[in-house]
NAD(P)H-dependent FMN reductase
Amino acid sequence: MKKILFIIGSLRAKSFNRQVARVAKEIIGGSAEVQELDYSDLPLLSQDIEQPELEVVARIRKEVSEADGLWIFTPEYNMSYPGHLKNLLDWLSRPVKPMDYATPTCINGKRVAISGAGGKAATADCRAKLTELLTFMKAEVIKDQVGIAVPAEAWGTDVLVLTDEQKAALKALADKLIKG
């Protein structure tokens, strides 16, 4: 059974993107094993602490390496991705062996799906920039993405209710991620 690792780009407990990830997990059901990556204790990347490899970095790299695919659910911050998500990706892009840039990183060649829930633009700028970054990192980004414009009433209740059309789009993306 394939393993899909969810990466939530929001730290907020009631995050709309966390809610979308829950729906995606329900949609996937028994088609794949789903796990959410916890990177809340990952320090900011600094060459001063890069080697020897930190335990948290080793754990995260192992989880990413063992996954058949990654699915990123992220909000848009100022027309881009959140800083903590960028920090995670920076760590994943670094060589495991010091200065060994010839050996592939744990994200190199990894299939990645991207979804985002946010304002009226449905995280379009964030998803485009994230696609550019992940492509540079040699990840295999699935072209079809799911952007969700959060309705006005949800901002007051912290509850996002997805439409059947949005669920169908998530299902189609899940199928592409799982089936390769």
About this structure: The radius of gyration is 16 Å. The first helix runs from residue 16 to 28.
